[in-house]
Amino acid sequence: MKLSTAQHRQFDRDGYLFFPGLFSADETRTLTEAVPELYSRREAYNVREKGSDAVRTNFAAHMYSEPFAKLARHPRMVEPVADLLGEELYMHQFKINGKMAFEGDVWQWHQDYGTWRNDDQMPTERAMNVAIFLDDVNEYNGPLMFIPGSHKRGVIDAKHDLTTTSYPLWTVDNELIRQLVDRAGGKNGGIVAPKGPAGSMILFHSCLVHASGSNLSPFNRVAVYLSLCAVSNHIRRHKRPEYIAHRDFTPIPCLPDDCLLRDYPVELPWKDGLPASALQTTSDDQRIAA
Amino acid sequence: MKLSTAQHRQFDRDGYLFFPGLFSADETRTLTEAVPELYSRREAYNVREKGSDAVRTNFAAHMYSEPFAKLARHPRMVEPVADLLGEELYMHQFKINGKMAFEGDVWQWHQDYGTWRNDDQMPTERAMNVAIFLDDVNEYNGPLMFIPGSHKRGVIDAKHDLTTTSYPLWTVDNELIRQLVDRAGGKNGGIVAPKGPAGSMILFHSCLVHASGSNLSPFNRVAVYLSLCAVSNHIRRHKRPEYIAHRDFTPIPCLPDDCLLRDYPVELPWKDGLPASALQTTSDDQRIAA
Questions:
Q1: Where are the domains of chain B?
Q2: How confident is the model over B236-263, as pLDDT tens digits?
Q3: CA distance B192 to chain A (A)
Q4: CATH for the B14-279 domain, from 3.40.190.10, 3.40.50.12280, 2.20.25.90, 2.60.120.620
Q5: Model ipTM value
Q6: What is this structure's pTM?
Q7: Is there a contact between B191 and A136 if contact means CB atoms under 8 Å apart?
Q8: Looking at CA atoms only, how far is residue A283 from chain B in angstroms?
Q9: What is the pLDDT of residues B162-202, one digit of tens each?
Q10: Which end of chain B is more exposed for a tag (fewer CB within 10 A), N or C?
């Protein structure tokens, strides 16, 4: 799956590409149906919403769940990212974000690369975010919002917000958000929120500023967020546990295009539980030998 | 301003009517420009967001601000409500809700009449909500969401939510919300969120279930919420202060249609500050002689 010149230009200008309905209903169902059991587990990799038992984010399902292990190697997801970054990729982070009906809380405005740089010492922004909808996304269930073109601003100084939600995040200052939205068109296009059926995919630049609102609707809005990093750009510090920021920099080998609907062997190294090593972290001033 | 038969039918079926751009930009500006000074006051009638200095709701501005006193008597607002309720009206509640850029918090799913009954002992649901936009409303700044037809369910048992936000609210159970949304069309029309320019007006039934999301955008979404009650249906208890639930049951006299743009004398009984009586409340078991 090669992207067209127009898609390359669009990505460069806007910082994202939207592929509505990229995965079929049958393919998506293999993923969606696996989520409740994963969310029910009382494990470190399930982070729950503040003041609620609803899962905010599940980490590293591709290490212990067969359908998600296949998704992590799916050519329809990996190949366009490799095309945009022009290099082999490894999986830096793998999340299934809940944004559950009634309970889903906000994600404040942020760049993902801010976190990867500040926490993980990822050298440059040569990494890509991928969002895959496991539920239909509409205006009522807290869609992802982007400020088009905001990736051009490069890496933005951020402050570590430890209190707003249950998950610490390096967030962007309100005044700068106002400027970026104005520059992108204010009320006319300064914010966009791609909506579409389950199975849709968004690729977005690791410096693209994004956020999402609360979900007060009775519609779940579960989505997989994969972060693929160029192998040469692997992280240099292991301050966060391995289930949050992965340490295996082996290039992702793709499975065939029909992998979600057929049996293909995939390794599930954490299927019997998190190994102790996945919880180990290094202190602030330790760096990993590259 | 008489409503058409079609509008009466639509209100009966859906529980709301939307009038985009009912007030001109010039008229709306007289209101919007008065808000920052009102919000800056350190008074009991300004309720601020949880953990923030942004105003969540300002009460009773029609008692101390000239433009809002005129709005409270505006024929384009009062006459359609009188037409729908078929009786003279008094002002039960008058709020300017902030839903400010970046800071605006959610309002959970609720019926307004639930609060008026539980807290104020308003005998029946013969009262109407009016929302008037002072800012453009779009999908990003936390628009009001309705479940069409949910007013037909009548008064719903509610629980008093004292913790989610800074303002106590009688809220509706999630499972019932799910049922009401399903009945109204689920993902196809089960929730609606009228959007439009500043100056737009919504009339909605006091039993219509509604909510609104957080406002993460850089766009303020200030709106006036007026609650007009049939005079015969006045409240029987003064458990809440007078600036929240008014005690003057005199029918509203309308001003001319051009009142927002011209000088018309209006009384401002609280222009020099809240009188002590406006803070007095009666205990749970005291009732007001009708």
A1: 14-279
A2: 999 999 999 999 999 999 999 999 999 9
A3: 9
A4: 2.60.120.620
A5: 0.90
A6: 0.92
A7: no
A8: 32
A9: 888 878 888 889 999 999 999 999 999 999 999 999 999 99
A10: C
